[in-house]
Amino acid sequence: ILPEGYKDQSTFPIGTGPYKFVSYEPGQVVVFEKNDDYYEKSRAGKIDRVEVYIMTDSSATVSALRSGQLDMTSVSAENAQQLSSDYDIYSSPQNMVQIFALNNSVEPFNDVKVRQAINYLVDKDEIIEGVFDGYATKLSSNFSPVMSHYYNDKLTDYYKTDVEKAKELLTEAGYPNGFDMTITVPANYQKHIDTAQVIVQQLAKGGINATIETIEWAAWLEDVYSNAQYQTTIIGLTGKLDPADVLGRYATSYGKNFFKFSNAEYDELVAKASLELDDAKRVEMYKRCQEILTQQAAAVYLTDPNLIIACRKDLKGYTFYPVGFYDFTKLYYEN
């Protein structure tokens, strides 16, 4: 809603929210102030002024927090441990799915038994402790449990780590001595590279010899995401609020279905669910979709890396949402 004829929305935006835009220094800081005329008094801001600093270096961010320039910031698991005695640490799943994607269209990953064997070989708890210092949530499907309305909790630990079961499946699939494979990982995501290193060791227990290939982000987008020219990869899939946007990625007709998963029942369910007006029926369909993905081992669903926030101890009210969203109206300083 804008004043008639207002032409400066791109440089000085006007909105109807609980905070008003004050200024923006490109690449440095955005400033907001409380909107005293906000119509919904129950959601009015409690803090008069908010400054959001744009910082990309984690060390500089921690220094700014310690110096008092920042009152709160997202931090790594390592920094959270160092800051925990002086700051309040909040941690929650962020509705991201870290996935070990298997290209279902290429050998040997076009065999469901091979994909299931790989699921049995991967120890997610070891990844959570070794890579994320415990700050991650184990997954069983392409949904994080923060999407509780649609999340199928019956799939928890569907593939408990079982090396002998994995070896049996590999033998049945014709690979009693394992095989060689490549894990293609974007070079700019260290946590995915670290995860790949752990998985290489885990796969070796089943006789699978995995090699890590790191490539630039632009190359990953072109080769893996756009053209599915890969065997396996590790990546984080951003969460969405509409399950159709999440599960639709696996539909046979979806152009960016780089998993190359294809299942007729799944395609029918996704299409029907997107048109279903009865919420209970829609939820049931989406839970069945998760079952199919897990049972068919479309991929290995690893973790939802937790979002970790460090706050000065008198700043209260930080609230997590299943999307990247800061709700300043919930924040207040404790006297």
Structure notes:
It contains ten helices and 13 strands. The protein starts with 18 loop residues before the first strand and ends with a strand. The longest helix has 17 residues, at 279-295. The chain is globular and about 70 Å long. It has 335 residues and is of the alpha+beta class. The mean pLDDT is 94. The protein has helices at residues 58-67, 77-83, 112-121, 124-132, 163-172, 190-204, 217-226, 243-247, 264-273, 279-295; strands at residues 19-25, 29-34, 49-53, 72-74, 88-93, 96-102, 136-138, 180-186, 209-215, 232-238, 299-311, 315-316, 332-333. The strands form three sheets. Strands 4, 5, 6, 7, 8, 9, 10 and 11 form an eight-stranded mixed β-sheet that branches. A three-stranded antiparallel β-sheet has the order 1-2-3, with no helix packed on it. It has a two-stranded antiparallel sheet with strand order 12-13.
Summarize the structure.
With 335 residues, the chain is of the alpha+beta class. It has helices spanning 58-67, 77-83, 112-121, 124-132, 163-172, 190-204, 217-226, 243-247, 264-273, 279-295; strands at 19-25, 29-34, 49-53, 72-74, 88-93, 96-102, 136-138, 180-186, 209-215, 232-238, 299-311, 315-316, 332-333. Strands 4, 5, 6, 7, 8, 9, 10 and 11 form an eight-stranded mixed beta sheet that branches. A three-stranded antiparallel beta sheet has the order 1-2-3, with no helix packed on it. Strands 12-13 form a two-stranded antiparallel ribbon.
